[in-house]
Write a structure and sequence with these properties.
Keywords: ATP-binding, Coenzyme A biosynthesis, Cytoplasm, Kinase, Metal-binding, Nucleotide-binding, Potassium, Transferase. By secondary structure, this protein is of the alpha/beta class. It has helices at residues 45-51, 56-62, 80-85, 111-124, 157-167, 188-214, 227-237, 239-243, 251-265, and strands at 4-10, 15-21, 24-31, 73-77, 92-94, 128-133, 136-142, 148-155, 219-223, 245-247. Bound molecules: adenosine-5'-diphosphate, ligand PAZ and potassium ion.
Length: 266
């Protein structure tokens, strides 16, 4: 009987969770960063599952033979303060960049980027390009030899909104529109939306086209919290390109599943 395990990716905005039974993803959800006030204690599994509307009983029952109180958690993180909170959890397996079989990576590459690329390559085939529309917006590409080609990092959509609001006197923190706004805006909110969205779109299109020049017909996958928004904008302006781009919220989890299997069989 396959065992249950939890995948936890700690991003800069929040925690990303998945419950697996063996290789099968059962459900995925997000939760807030934890605050470590008070005495250190082991994070409470019941509370974790409650956030996902899962009962511990259901999760444990789903994989019979599980007698442990604590499910294994496979953790990867790009936020070291948050990682520290989990060190008291008994059944923790922390993935490090060196354990990801991606070749030609550099020591400070974000493990979320390495895992998402690995997941994309394993599921959709190599070469692969990942666009992660998270706190930061990142491009991460790998070739047919499963080597990192490279990538790029810029502030994500919300971070661009927030940084304008924080560093200027007159600009408000807008909510990004769900549909593509008009380019030539006539008020402040629309002007911020236009500026951020059209320049990000131009950048995304340019990176994707440059990638396809080197790796024609290769898989391009969008993930991250703003994936649907970004894809929606892309569809409105570049429908042909958008049709060739896959949306997958679980790339990092596919990467964790693959790396967990490799490290277990090694
Ligand atoms: N419920 C939500 N909470 C936080 N961010 C959200 C939520 N829904 C959508 N987002 C968007 O997702 C972005 C963060 O992406 P995500 O991939 O979750 O971040 P990270 O992996 O960096 O923690 C935010 O900047 C925001 O625009
Ligand atoms: C670029 C990132 C901040 C993205 O993090 P995220 O938006 O997913 O929270 C993260 O992958 C990171 O800290 N990277 C280290 C630098 C690098 O990848 O080169
Ligand atoms: K991200």
């Amino acid at each position: 009987m396959d065992k249950s395990w939890l995948a936890l990716m700690i991003g800069n905005s929040r925690l990303h969770w998945a419950w697996f039974v063996g290789d099968q993803l059962q459900s995925a959800w997000d939760s807030e960063h934890l605050t470590n006030s008070g005495p250190p204690s082991s994070p409470n599994l019941g509370k974790i599952l409650e956030k996902a509307s899962l009962s511990r009983e259901k999760v444990v029952r789903r994989s019979q033979g599980e007698n442990s109180d604590e499910l294994p958690i496979v953790l990867a993180s790009v936020v070291s303060e948050q990682t520290a909170i989990w060190q008291t959890y008994r059944q923790l397996q922390t993935l490090m960049l060196a354990q990801i079989p991606l070749q030609h990576s550099y020591p400070t590459l974000g493990i979320d980027r390495a895992l998402a690329l690995w997941g994309a390559g394993e599921v959709y085939g190599w070469p692969a390009l990942v666009i992660d529309a998270g706190t930061a917006l990142t491009f991460t590409g790998g070739n047919a030899e499963r080597q990192l080609v490279g990538g790029a990092i810029l502030p994500g959509l919300s971070l661009q909104v927030q940084s304008l609001a924080q560093k200027t006197a007159a600009l408000p923190a807008i909510a990004l529109p769900e549909t593509l706004p008009k380019r030539w805006a006539n008020d402040t909110e629309d002007a911020i939306a236009s500026g951020i969205i059209y320049t990000v779109l131009a950048g995304v299109v340019d990176f994707v086209q440059a990638w396809w020049q080197e790796f024609p017909h290769c898989a391009v996958v969008i993930t991250g919290g703003d994936r649907a928004l970004l894809h929606q904008y892309l569809q409105s302006q570049h429908s042909e390109l958008a049709a060739q781009v896959t949306i997958d919220p679980n790339l990092i989890f596919w990467g964790m599943r693959a790396c967990r299997a490799e490290s277990a069989s090694a």
